[in-house]
Structure formats: C-alpha cells, structure tokens
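Dear support,

We are seeing what looks like truncated structure output for some complexes. This example has two components. We would appreciate it if you could run it in full and send us the complete token output so we can diff it against ours.
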Amino acid sequence: MLGRGPGVSHFMKRQAILLARRGASSAMESVICIAVDVPTAALLREGHPEVAFTDESSPARLLARLRERKETVNVVVLGTGVEEPLRLSEELHALDPIPAVLILSEPARHLGLLRQWRLSPVGSGEVRCRSITEEEALTAELAQAIAGAKLRRRNELVQRKAEEAATRSETRLRTLIHNEPECVKLVSPDGTLLEMNAAGLAIVEADSAQAVVGKKVFPLIAPEHREAFQNMHARVIQGHHESLEFETVGLRGTRRWLETCAVPFGDEAEGEVVHLAVTRDVTARKQAEQEILERDQRLRLALEAAHMGTWNWDIRSDKITWSDEMETLFGVQRGELSDSCEDYLRMLSPEDRAETERALTEALDGTRPSYSLEHRVLWPDGSLHWIECRGQVFRDEQGKPLRMAGISADISERKRMEEERSHLVDELRQAVKVRDEFLSIASHEFRTPLTTLTLQVDGLIHLLSSTSGMSERLLSRARTIRRQADRLESLVSGLLDVSRVDPGQLQLQPENVDLARVAKDVVERLTPERGSPISLQVNGPVVGYWDPLRLDQVLTNLLSNALKYGQGKPIDVSVQASATEVILAVRDQGFGIAPADRARIFERFERAVSERHFGGLGLGLWIVQQIVDAVHGTIVCDSRPGAGSTFTVVLPRSA
Amino acid sequence: MTVTRKIVVIDDDEDLLQAVCDVLGDVGHQTVPFSGAEEALASLDRDNPPDLILLDLMMPGMSGWDFREAQRSQPGLSSIPVVVMTASRNLSDNPIDANEVLLKPLNLDRLLCAISRHGGGAVSG
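Here is the complete output from our reference environment:
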C-alpha cells in the first residue's frame, strides 16, 4: 500500500532523512510521541531508524518529564488523540522551546484547529496534516517537520546566545569604560556630551554625570584652547582620527592640561557618527615640561649674559652639537657652524690650532685630566676673539671616550682688561722706579750740603764754646741750627728708605753683631738733654747675625716714636735673649694707641695721631715692619690709650 | 788739644771742602784742600806724605775709586791711610778699599774720631 518506488515522494523522503541526519550530527535525535496511534508510530519508527522514539501517555506526564531536563528532546509528535494540542505546543515552546508536530489523520475535519495552529505565535508547528493512509508522504513530512523544527530551534538558540553574548559584551565594555583610569567620553556632532566615565567626571570636577552629560562640552575647554578643540571635534565627526593637547577648566575652576585621542564612532551610513575620545590628564608632565623650558630659558639667558655657549662632541660619529650661543661666539650666522671638529679647528687663529689639537688629544687619551684651554677665534670679519673652553670626557666601561661636553666663553673683554692692567702695572712700576731714582738722587744731593751745614755749625759751636766771653745766646742759636740740621738729615734718610725698603728691594748686609752694643749706641745717641729719660736693660752681649745698620734703624725708629709720643715720661728699652731669638722691647708711658689704629700704624705714611700735632713722614713703623719681615721676625704693639705703648720685636738670632 | 796732623782733603764740592778744612783747622790740624783727585794725586809728595787723606768718591774727572787705586799702586804713597766721605749708600755694588767709610751727612765728632783712629800718632789732651 505504500509506494516505495522511485518518485518525487521517495526523493523528498530521502532528502528529509538526510536533512534530519545532518541536523543530528552529534547525537541521536530524540522524539517523544504522545497519543500517536500504533500504526502511525510504527510508520514513523520505520521511516526514521536514526531517531529514538519514546511514547508518553499524557500531556501532564510529558511536561513533568521535560521539566526534569534530564534529556534533550528534539521534537514532540502530537497524535490525533491529544486534546488541546495548541495549548500543549505553547507550553512546550515556553519550556525549552521544543517544537511540536501535530498529526491530523483527517485535516479537513479540523480546519479550525489547523488555522489556530498556523497562527500561533510560537510558530513551532508546521502542522503536518496527513492521513495515516498516506504513509509515505507522512514519513517524509515528519522528517521535514523534524528538520525544520530543529533548524528553527537552533536558530533560536544561536540568536539567544548572540543576544546573551552581546549583553555580556556590552556589560563588560561598560564596566571597562567606567573603570578606565583615563577619561572616556562620547560627544555628539553638535558638541553635546553623551557619555563620560568616572575618570572624566573627576577631571571636569563633576559630582555626577547629570552635571555635564546632556550639556555642551565646549564650556569645559579653556577659552584659549576652545577653537582648536572645536576644529578637532569637527574633523572627528567628518571621520578623521585626531589628537590634541589642551587645557580644561573644571566646574570648580581648576585648570588641567589634557591630551586627547579622538576617533569617529558609530555608523556613518546611518548618520550616527559621534566623537569618541580617550583623554588623559598630562598636567604633571606639562608642568615638568614647563619647568624644563623655563630652566632652559634661564640657562640660556645666563649663557647669553655671560657670553657663553655649550657643546657636545660625539666622538664616535665625530659630530659636534653647538648651542645657539656658540654661533655668536664664533661670529657666524645661525646654522653656519659646522658640526665637524676639523672645521672647528680651522676657525681658530692659526697659532692656536696645534695647542688646541694637542689639548683635545691629551684630554681624550687621558694624559690631561680635563680639557681646559684659551684660544683665539678668527671671525669671518677678520677680527680675533679670545675664547675659553672647558670640557670633560665621558667614557664607556672600558674607558673608551664616547663624548666630550663642555662650555665656552668669550673672554676677549677680560683679555683686553688683563692686557690693560698689565700695561698699567708696567707703567706703575716704571713710575715707581722713576720716583725711587729721583728720591735716591735727591737724598744723595741733600747729603753734601747737609754735611757742610753740620760741619760748619759744629765748628761754630766748637769755637763759641772754646772762646771765652762769647755770648751764651749765640751758642744756643748755633745749637738750634744744629738740631734742625739733624732733623733734615733724618727726613732725607726716611725719603731714601721709602724706595730702598720696598718689598723685595731691601738689601741686608748681615754680619755678627752685638745687639746690646747697638742698643747702647742708639740710646746714647737719642737720649735728649731734656725730656724722657731712657733706661736700658740688657745683660751682657747679645750676638746675632744681623745687618747692624738695619738693626740700628729698627731701634732708632722705635725709640724716636717713644720720645715723640711719650709725653716726656720715662722710656724703657730692654733686650732679652734665648738660644734662638732675641726680644727687643721699647715701652713708653705716653698717649697710647687706640685698638682701631694698631694695625694701621704699620702702613706707609700712616700715623696714630694727627699730623697737625706731630710732624714726620709716617714712615718709621713701616720701615721697622719691613726690616723685621725681611729677617723673618715679628713685631707686635701692645697699647692702651692714655697708658702708653710697648713695641716688642722678636728676631731670630740668624736671619 | 789734639795732635796736629797733616790732612789732605779731596772733595769737588767747594763749600764742603772749605767746611772740612775750617773745622779741622779750628782744632789745630793742617789741611791741604783739593777740589779734584787728579790734582791731589799729582801733588802728593812721597818724601813728605800727609798723615791722612779724606777722600770723596763721586767726583768729575778722576773718581775717588780711581784715586785710591792709583795711590795704592805708588810706592811711598800706598801706605797713607784713607778715610772716605760719601753720600752713596750703595757701596756694596762698588766697594772701596779704605781704612774707614764715613757716610754723609757727618758731624764733627765722627770726623774727628775717624781722624784720631787712622791719623797715626797719639792724641794728646
């Protein structure tokens, strides 16, 4: 009764079976039949040997079984005996969904049901309504139904998974964006802020998204950067990838430097492109850059002010990098300074090239600790300029030179001043020499008439003293002339000493001399007829190797001062000796010297008292100091104003 | 009282020459003044030599150094004592071989002491 020969039905059946098999590639298909009459069930089993058929007695049991979810059921076949098949199929769909196939033996009798089934939103049932007598067709239809149901179910599952995946993906993306440490935002073409993550809200100082989202983003940009930002925004909306550094002003007024990378986001075809940007706070970097820039500017200013430049010579590539100031130092235009060391040497004054080259070589091979040199540079205009260079060599771990870096300074002005100073010093030396020669000649010339004067006055005094009856008044006048001649002699000697006692010019003629003898002579010579009495304390001869004339001069000058400023009170001279040195002290009880004046009195042409009250050239103590220094001795002054002064000279016994 | 000595005085400064002769004459010495060393050297009589020569160093014509050298080279004259009177302080550069060097300015006491030291004979009361 069932035609099994070749034909359209058979072909369809085979296709359906293949289709069903393909859909059940991984496991055996499982079909539950409910209320299917025995012949139909047998027919199904025969037509689908790859399918595992099981029977269920009632819809309630079927649903209970499926709810346990212990098995995977592909299709439920509802037989003609099922009551309310539509409701059951809906419940099945809600459950998994499991497609249901309804078998109607006499479809014409169930037209209402058929219509409802087809209109059912669950769409699970392609209702196969066949008479059980059309066995072959039924088998094929069932196979198709199974296959179609499975396909639909698979599609549904795929779609559901895709939706779930999309949901999960979106959740992950939202979490990611929200937790992203950089600011992420979406801006609509008209500049409305669509979305912004927490990091972005923090940057613009918004307490909540409502504070900024839905509003224009441009007011958050610092006014001076707003135009650049708007231009960038426009280009992004046109489809370009852009980046920009700009300053933002937060809602609480804080300015921050931001760096943003923006891309167009969305479907251009549908006209829904927005501006997606990831923005980071680069304020710290900008501040550091600004600090470096300012430091660089300060350094540059300092270098410019000092006429200095810096350079770095990469030894391996033999290239020199010059700072801009170096061009000024070499008198060339911007960019004209060659980076080659050879060209550098060519710019030097020819006579300085060899020495410079040697200094560089020795600094590189380490034979001189650093590169330090002064050389002249020949400017393109032909003028010569002095440059001072200092550099240091930097080496690798093996000690091989990698680079030399240093500074150069224009020292032409300093050189000019040095030359000028040297010239002035020469002139001064010459002037001093002329002065000394003049003083020497002048004092020499003074001595001869002084001798004549002294001798004649001495002769007169001698005559007046030895001739009786001559007036005492005449003798007194002659002695006054004699004293003044002595004074003149002393002044002339002092003038000569100015030139002869100058440091380095003091010539000593030492010999074995008894200081005690010298002291006695000086005291004897200077003891005045009226005025301060002088006492001398000395025990025995004190012999040393000194210049007797200079020794005499030291004591004479000290004693003359004591007489001059001693107010007529007693003066003590003492000489004490040890094995290695002698101590010569002259003590007066006169005016004394204020502490502030004590150092000054040893200077040339200085005196502790006003020249209005005391004459003299102010040379005595200076000469004493020079002589004492020359024999490696010391002199100190101990004095109290009003209580007198003590000058103590310590002399080594052999100079 | 001093022993009278015959003293030759040589100095190109006429006033100083006169002063030295005046003061030495006042104390009883016999002085023979010369304002030039050459003239003085020529007049020295080896048969009747002076007791002492007072000699200036820096003089036009024959200098004191030249005079002393010539005098020392002549037998009969070389033994005459010479006391130098000079204003120069740099004798270390041009040393002079003399019995004594008196630095100008000098006074009568120092002059008479030098004469008595080198003039020979005994000083009397």
